[in-house]
Design a protein that fits this description.
Layout lengths: L2 H11 L2 H27 L8 H6 L1 E2 L2 H4 L5 H4 L7 H21 L2 H25 L1 H4 L6 E2 L3 H14 L4 E4 L3 E4 H15 L6 H22 L6 H13 L16 H25 L6 H11 L1
Antiparallel strand pairs: 1-2, 3-4
Length: 295
């Protein structure tokens, strides 16, 4: 089996977490490969001059976003820098595994997408309402799975706050403290304008995750409606089965008894034939009838 076949098999057999990681990595590889061809044709290898990113990342300008609504979903799988996707996928794997110890894969998918959408809301609000960021609206774009990962972290930290993980140099640390440190780091990093939009996105994901962890603890799953919508959209792209299903009217008691009587008569006839001519005189169909009756 070749490498490509092994990857396909691993993807098909993997769960929701595995598929999310594969899609992110696949998108990253495809984006960078296409960027190579673009740099050869345009003479520029800079990220800012790469047009594909502007079509799959969320623009901060609301008027531009109106014509690119698909970016609200695609941006969650877009990475350009290697370290960006490396740490996002490591965090997604670590916190996703912990999430699945307590909750199910469908809930993980719901939190990933809704947490990412919550992050977009915080990103757009910050760039369009906070004066210091408004001057950067025209050229700002949002990409990456960080908001979704933060949502998963805060969801499970709220649901199982005392669950311990083991960190290098620190030993056993409760999840609630891991989430708290991540929140503080984002808050103090906002003034650095180089990635303020990303940090606001993290906060949006964290807010949704915290809300979800609380609601699921009370028995309410706010992702159910979203998951049902995604299921309906998925069925639109599935090929329809060519198999036809037929339904038979159930037999009445009279019909059932009549059928049993006919079967018994046939068995009696075959037994009489065996007495007269021996078992070898039976046809293949008669032997099969006798075998089924014996069961």
């Amino acid at each position: 089996m070749g490498i490509v076949d092994e990857i396909k098999q691993s993807y098909r057999q993997g769960g929701a977490l595995t598929k999310l990681i594969y899609i992110n990595i696949g998108a990253f590889v495809l984006i960078r490969l296409l960027q190579i061809f673009f740099s050869f044709s345009s003479g520029s290898a800079s990220m800012e001059a790469y047009p594909l990113l502007k079509w799959i990342s969320v623009p901060a300008d609301l008027q531009v976003l109106l014509f690119k609504p698909w970016t609200l979903i695609t941006y969650m799988f877009v990475h350009y820098d290697f370290l960006h996707i490396l740490f996002n996928m490591l965090y997604l794997y670590w916190f996703g595994r912990i999430f699945l110890e307590f909750l199910n894969p469908r809930q993980l998918l719901g939190v990933y997408f809704l947490g990412g959408l919550s992050g977009v809301v915080f990103y757009l609000v910050s760039y369009n309402l906070i004066p210091v960021f408004q001057q950067h609206v025209s050229g700002a774009i949002l990409m990456g799975a960080s908001g979704s990962v933060m949502a998963i972290l805060f969801a499970i930290a709220r649901y199982a706050p005392n669950h311990k993980i083991y960190l290098l140099f620190f030993g056993a640390v409760q999840l609630k403290y891991v989430a708290l440190v991540a929140l503080v780091l984002d808050l103090i990093s906002i003034p650095a304008l180089s990635n303020s939009g990303g940090h606001f996105t993290h906060l949006g994901g964290a807010v949704f995750g915290y809300f979800y962890g609380g609601s699921i603890s009370q028995g309410r799953d706010v992702t159910m409606g979203f998951n049902r919508l995604m299921d309906r959209l998925a069925t639109l792209f599935k090929p329809k089965s060519k198999l036809k299903v037929t339904y038979r009217r159930p037999m009445s008691d009279l019909e059932y008894n009549s059928r049993k009587v006919d079967q018994q008569k046939e068995v009696d006839r075959i037994l009489d034939k065996i007495k007269k001519s021996g078992y070898d005189s039976l046809s293949k169909q008669e032997k099969q009838t006798l075998f089924e009756a014996s069961k």
